[in-house]
């Protein structure tokens, strides 16, 4: 019969083996912040490059476009991410009314560890810190949600952002719980994020 220590070790070993099995990317990629006429977009190609280039013509620089390299592409998790995220709250195993949302989420993780994000559709604002995880492709997150339309979502969460270089995605997982007399509230935020 296996001991609790062996089970704990296996729980830690399994995700690390999965990360080691992921194929390595052949090159790093930058993320560009493009600003034109008050509109900001993030892209993995230079801002002034047209989507379709005729023949072998070089892209003509567009002086009205401001470009900044802001992220680590798919080699490191810092930088901007967008995706659909699921927010939900359960109490004693039952979903709370009005607390389940699947909405767009935008997050930004700075090189110094600041984490900010928002989901305008459910009014949630995210603010916290990111710290290095077991590998350079994992960040541990400590994030507080505030201003959410569903009050039960407004609390402090722990979780991770795990980068999958091959799939060009990152998995966001945030989890919070409040346990007390007659209270067993579990809230989570999950999503597949892309650049």
The CATH architecture of the largest domain can be given as: Beta Barrel
How much of the residues is beta strand, in percent? over 45%
Q: What's the helix count?
A: 1
Q: Main sheet: which strands, in order across?
A: 4-6-7-8-9-10-11-12
- CATH topological fold name of the largest domain: Porin
What is the domain tally? 2
User: Structural class of the helix and strand makeup?
Assistant: mainly beta
Q: Average pLDDT across residues?
A: 79
Can you tell me the overall shape?
A: globular
Distance between the termini: 46 Å
How many whole angstroms does the radius of gyration measure? 20 Å
At the first level of CATH, the class of the largest domain is Mainly Beta
**Oligomeric grouping of the chains:** single chain
Order of helices and strands: HEEEEEEEEEEEE
Number of strands: 12
Biggest sheet features = 8 strands, antiparallel, barrel
Percentage of residues in helical conformation: under 10%
Description:
The chain has 195 residues and is mostly beta strands. It folds into 2 domains: 28-49 and 59-71, no CATH class; 77-195, Beta Barrel (Porin), CATH 2.40.160. The protein contains 1 helix and 12 strands; from the N terminus they run αββββββββββββ. The protein has one helix at residues 4-21, and strands at 31-36, 39-43, 66-71, 79-91, 94-95, 101-109, 114-119, 124-132, 138-146, 156-164, 169-180, 183-194. The strands form 2 sheets. The protein has an 8-stranded antiparallel barrel with strand order 4-6-7-8-9-10-11-12. Strands 2-1-3 form a 3-stranded antiparallel sheet, with no helix packed on it. The longest helix is centred in the N-terminal third of the chain and has 18 residues, at 4-21. It is globular. It starts with a helix and ends with a strand.
